[in-house]
Amino acid sequence: MKNLRILLAFAFVLTLLASCKKSDPTRANILTSHKWALTSSTTQVSGDTSYTLNNLRYDTLPCQKDGYREFRDYLNNTTERSYYDYTESKCVNETDDVTTGYWDLDKENEYLTFSANGNNGQQYSWKITSLDASKLVLTETNTTYVTLYSTTPPYTSRTVVRTITNENTWTAK
């Protein structure tokens, strides 16, 4: 009988410890729990020609260097998730300190989609390459066809395929 009580007490303690175990935060929880600053942006072009552009995208212009993005999850019982881009240093002809848009995750939480006007606006989907409490890496890949023309006779043309991969790294503030 004493062994049964010890066994039951042990089982109870194990059950209690298992119920107290922290669950892994969801990707949405990680996104909304931080302010995110864009720290690097790279564009890789490959195909008939290959090259890499580092920190030359519009997001990394000097007027954006102090800015950050904040993700908010269904504010005021809305059906859309909002993001806010804060610009802390002004650019020439810039009128707003804050721009907004909408964001969402796909069912598998692999892709993060941004849109300016919710479901009615143009959307951009980025693959979440990496996400933890301190860093977010987003990748977008597009394939494009380019027609190249010769500048000398017989003036032929050929179509080539180019793959453009953008990678943005964000750091939690």
Summed up, what is this model?
The chain is mostly beta strands. Helix content is 14%, strand content 46%.
Which keywords apply here?
single chain, 173 residues, mainly beta
Would you kindly provide a written description of the structure presented here, covering whatever features stand out?
- With 173 residues, the chain is mainly β.
- The protein contains two helices and nine strands.
- The chain has helices at residues 2-20, 27-32, and strands at residues 35-46, 51-54, 68-72, 81-86, 98-105, 111-115, 123-131, 135-149, 157-172.
- The longest helix is centred in the N-terminal third of the chain and has 19 residues, at 2-20.
Tell me the span between the first and last alpha carbons. 58 Å
Say what oligomer this is: single chain
Structural class computed from helices and strand pairing: mainly beta
* Strand order across the largest sheet: 1-3-4-5-6-7-8-9
- Overall geometry: elongated
Into which percentage range does the β-strand content fall? over 45%
Count all strands and give the number: 9
Secondary structure layout:
Layout: H1 2-20, H2 27-32, E1 35-46, E2 51-54, E3 68-72, E4 81-86, E5 98-105, E6 111-115, E7 123-131, E8 135-149, E9 157-172
Antiparallel strand pairs: 1-2, 1-3, 1-9, 3-4, 4-5, 5-6, 6-7, 7-8, 8-9
